[in-house]
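Fig. S4 source data, part A: sequence.
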Amino acid sequence: MKRIILWVLALFLPFCSYSKTVTYYQDSGNIPIGGYSEIFTDPADTCTIQDLVQTDKFVAAGNTIPNLGISSKAFWVKFTIQNESELEELLLEYGQVIIDEISIYVVTPKNNKIVYTYHTGEKYKFSKRAYDYPTYIFSIPISKGETKDVYLHLKSGEEIVIPVTLGSTTTILDANHDKGFIFGMYSGIIFVMFFFNLFIYFTLKDSIYLKYVIYVFSIGMAQASLFGYSFQYLWPDSPWMANQSVYLFSCMASISALEFVKTFLQMKTNAPLLYKGSFVFTLAYIITEILSLAGYFNISYFLVLTNAGLICVYILIVAIIIFKRGFKRALFFLIAWSPLLLGIIISVLKDFDILPANNFTNYTMVTGTALEVILLSFALADRINILKREKEESQAQTLEALLQNELIIKNQNILLEKKVEERTKELSDTIADLKQTQQQLVSSEKMASLGHLTAGIAHEINNPINFVVSNVKPLKKDIEDIYELIKKYENIDSLSGFQNEISEINSFKNEIDYAYLKKEIGSLLQGIEDGAGKTADIVQGLRAFSRTDENVFKRSNILDGIHSSLTLLNTELSGASIDVVKNFSDLPSIECYPGKLNQVFMNILNNAIFSIKENKQRKEKGQLIITTYVNNHKVHISFKDNGTGIADDVKAKVFEPFFSTKEAGKGAGLGMSIAFEIIREHNGDIQLHTEYGIGSEFVVSLPVNYTK
């Protein structure tokens, strides 16, 4: 990613303020520095490095990868490097492979002292290079904090492009390994197509395959020469061959391609005038090779580029004309030729400095030739079928058999269509049955949950009712004692003395323990009140959970649903000694189906309670933590337990229908599937985080405002 960012930044250097100093940091990676360079043209190639360190006639390059075109002049390139990394040495890579001479001078700017000099290029043996790579790699001795001026002296008979990259030993060599891998893939394609078509040639003895084999070999060698691999591996000690191979194999590839096209498109028959005109290109390529051998490399390279562009357009026009005349095989050729044509056009425009030189334009020829070779092989393979069909069509008996086969096929198609129609009807009925079964299973799952809840609710309601029933009889007796006490007060004769009656009343008060009686009545009434309140809470929770607006879309506070679910599950929670930790924050009302969300919460809580009960290895007390929060216009609810957790090999199946981690008979495996569908219906999301033996966490995320 870092390299991509650096390349993207490098593309915009021409539009930014110019700076000729390249600063290299520890994590800079590979930096394309052509845009930082300055260029000086030396027409007669008479200047020396001593002359140039003191001149100010250098001109800013202006492009990330400057293209100086095809020229016999010598060029000097200058840029300044500042090292802010911990490295004691940086590598400089010059990516233009086909260049006759390249010299590098590293100069200390303070005193103009030359500290490093190296001369290389195609005129020198490959085995003399410091690094065994097709591109030119130089070691720059530069310590941390130092600044060095670098001068490159370039001279070539071909185009001169300045794809210069600065990096560390690791990054530069890794990049070259990547390039080698790409070209290795290309070479593999060329080798496979070469031997595949060579095998067909020896099998069929058809000359078109031999022409194609020669073309595949030539185009592969031409690309290997352009990328420097032929010099590296085939003739490392022959600079002359390295220089000539580009022209030799380029001319061979074009001539063999032209001969192949003549045969494939049957130009002599389908376009006789264009066929005669093709010999002009053959003559032009022969002249190009002769000029190359004579040492006129600038002219030869110009002719190679010009002829490549012209011959591509010429072959394209020929194929179109022949196709319009009814020769259908020309369509195969047009499809196969298009990638190569596009690659050649882009490459030629790049070499003439109309398009910039970059990774895309540098590899278009490789990509185009690879695709063209593969597609033409398919076209040639189709040629075998065509020859076979032509032979069969020449025999009347075979034609009659084909007609009979056609009749049989028609009858079979009729029968097949009938069978398909019958099977389609059966499939439709099956789908309808499956939908009905699915609805029944969903209802069954809901009824199972309801039955489970009913048992718990009955137990919960039974407790407060017992409070009431058990307190009524003592309360009744206490009230009767109060009534007896009051009656004694009523029987006091107002005209007689009170002494005897009061003594009797006090004796009765002591007998019934009046002070304790008042306290007991208060306790009994409080018990009845608590039981009635708890019963009301349970009823309210049941009403909230089983609300009748399940299919009504409205704004609702989902905390109500969570509270009601916990209330209904209180028996399960208390019976399993599970602590419920509620980390509730204020939540906004959301647009939802409240009843459906209650089903989601109930299913998740039921599974959590079951998981905690099943975790027999847990030493600490069972715990269920429910956390709510708002983030990015979404409401998030986390249900985290310390139960058994879920194994990794089955975690992905949790939301699948009919999957359950429970034993047979303890669950239909539809709870989480239903929950998943309900959350998806709300445009929400549900995530599972689990670790076997530790516990699980379900996080439900719901949008505050529903959007379709």
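Fig. S4 source data, part B ends here. The chain has a mean pLDDT of 79.
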